């Protein structure tokens, strides 16, 4: 973990001759317990922040330049005005935030910024959303703009949608902005109403197994799924004008031939609607301390993501299957799909021995290594 003193040393080394006060901010990664691929269909999600993070040091400068340095890539960017940078994709998250503030007539002073992070890239733990949120929160704080955490989340989502060009939902930015240590939130992505839920797992724990696979289908398939979900909803809405989102449709509606749904649209809609039922059960199980019931729902969710939504892959399917054979309480792929991490729920004390078993079998089948991530449920974006 890079401490503020190390961030400050990097800032002073890369951008000397500036006596402005340095401030430090951090934003966490996230997991989503249940409610996968429904945040763009008006669904309820159950995310929590984790103690992997993106950290920045920032100060205003008098150079009339935005000066930005990445500790990881050792790339230094200095620009007088903001335009999309196709050569340095990571810096567009910063630019997008500055641009969204400008649209609100919040004009940023020029600044020096150093970024460091330990959120694994490509693992589906939302490193990009954490970067957006920490920059947005930092700029709001150093300029005394006083945006709420909810406003920070929405602005960060707009930056990714409009400037970066990724049509993401609101979940990642929202949990990273609002999270509390030891709690997950149930977030209605249609109304943005949310509640905190204490994660009391009674001798059990969550952890992550990274498949270390990122199939190239991910981005194109994500956009395809969004189109399929929207198409299914529009066909149903012609006959059921009372529903505002696909998430509100009932499973039996999918067999109504007058809707004219294709088989693909039925499968996609079945996942979204089924996820509503699973999420409701998961929240009840969490409230009641029924960890075993929560685990069973994770397995059901993975099956739906694999068979109906078709965003899993042979590697993550294999990991979940092997974990089920070893009688863990629950497991499922998380994130956009086509690789990334599997979220595991099991009794405390089994993790390391079990991981070594799965790791060996995985290597034998795919000639690839797995990675184990342990985590704690953490606070959201904040100054340090």
TrEMBL record:
GO molecular function (one): galactokinase activity
Annotated ranges, domain Galactokinase N-terminal: 13-60
UniProt entry keywords in alphabetical sequence: ATP-binding, Carbohydrate metabolism, Cytoplasm, Galactose metabolism, Kinase, Magnesium, Metal-binding, Nucleotide-binding, Transferase
EC identifiers of the protein: 2.7.1.6
Entry-linked SUPFAM superfamilies: GHMP Kinase, C-terminal domain, Ribosomal protein S5 domain 2-like
Residue ranges annotated for the GHMP kinase C-terminal domain, each copy included: 282-346
Residue span(s) of domain GHMP kinase N-terminal: 92-176
Any one GO BP annotation for this protein: galactose metabolic process
Pfam families documented for this protein: GalKase_gal_bdg, GHMP_kinases_C, GHMP_kinases_N
GO cellular component, one term: cytosol
Alphabetized PROSITE patterns for the sequence: GALACTOKINASE, GHMP_KINASES_ATP
Matching InterPro entries: Galactokinase (IPR000705), Galactokinase_CS (IPR019741), GalKase_N (IPR019539), GHMP_kinase_C_dom (IPR013750), GHMP_kinase_C_sf (IPR036554), GHMP_kinase_N_dom (IPR006204), GHMP_knse_ATP-bd_CS (IPR006203), Mevalonate/galactokinase (IPR006206)
Entry's family note: Belongs to the GHMP kinase family. GalK subfamily.
Name of protein: Galactokinase
The organism's taxonomic lineage, starting at the top: Bacteria, Pseudomonadati, Spirochaetota, Spirochaetia, Leptospirales
This protein's encoding gene: galK
């Amino acid at each position: 973990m890079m401490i503020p003193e190390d961030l400050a040393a990097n800032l002073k080394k890369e951008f000397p001759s500036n006596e402005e006060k340095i401030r430090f901010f951090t934003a966490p990664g996230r997991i989503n317990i249940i409610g996968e691929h429904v945040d763009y269909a008006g669904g309820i999600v159950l995310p929590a922040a984790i103690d992997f993070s993106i950290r920045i040091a920032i100060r205003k400068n008098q150079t009339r330049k935005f000066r930005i340095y990445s500790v990881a890539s050792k790339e230094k960017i200095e620009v007088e005005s903001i335009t999309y940078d196709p050569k340095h994709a990571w810096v567009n998250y910063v630019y997008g935030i500055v641009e969204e503030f400008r649209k609100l007539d919040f004009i940023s002073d020029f600044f020096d910024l150093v970024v460091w992070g330990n959120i694994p890239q490509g693992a589906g733990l939302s490193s990009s959303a954490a970067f957006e949120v920490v920059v947005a929160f930092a700029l709001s704080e150093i300029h005394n703009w006083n945006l709420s955490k909810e406003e920070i989340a929405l602005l960060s989502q707009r930056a990714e949608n409009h400037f970066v060009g990724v049509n993401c939902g609101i979940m990642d930015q929202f949990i990273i902005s609002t999270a509390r240590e030891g709690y997950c939130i149930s977030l209605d992505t249609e109304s943005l109403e949310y509640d905190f839920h204490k994660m009391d797992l009674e001798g059990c724990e969550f952890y992550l197994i990274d498949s270390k696979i990122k199939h190239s289908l991910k981005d194109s398939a994500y956009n395809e799924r969004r189109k399929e979900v929207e198409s299914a909803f529009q066909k149903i809405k012609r006959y059921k004008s009372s529903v505002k989102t696909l998430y509100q449709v009932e499973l039996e509606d999918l067999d109504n031939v007058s809707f004219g749904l294709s088989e693909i649209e039925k499968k996609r809609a079945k996942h979204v609607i089924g996820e509503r039922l699973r999420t409701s059960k998961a929240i009840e199980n969490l409230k009641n301390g029924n960890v075993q019931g929560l685990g069973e729902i994770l397995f059901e969710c993975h099956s739906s993501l694999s068979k109906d939504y078709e965003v899993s892959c042979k590697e993550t399917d294999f990991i979940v299957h092997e974990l089920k054979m070893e009688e863990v309480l629950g497991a499922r792929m998380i994130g956009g799909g086509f690789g990334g991490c599997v979220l595991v729920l099991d009794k405390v004390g089994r993790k390391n021995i079990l991981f070594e078993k799965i790791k060996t079998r995985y290597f034998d089948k795919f000639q690839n290594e797995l990675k184990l991530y342990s985590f704690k449920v953490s606070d959201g974006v904040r100054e340090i």
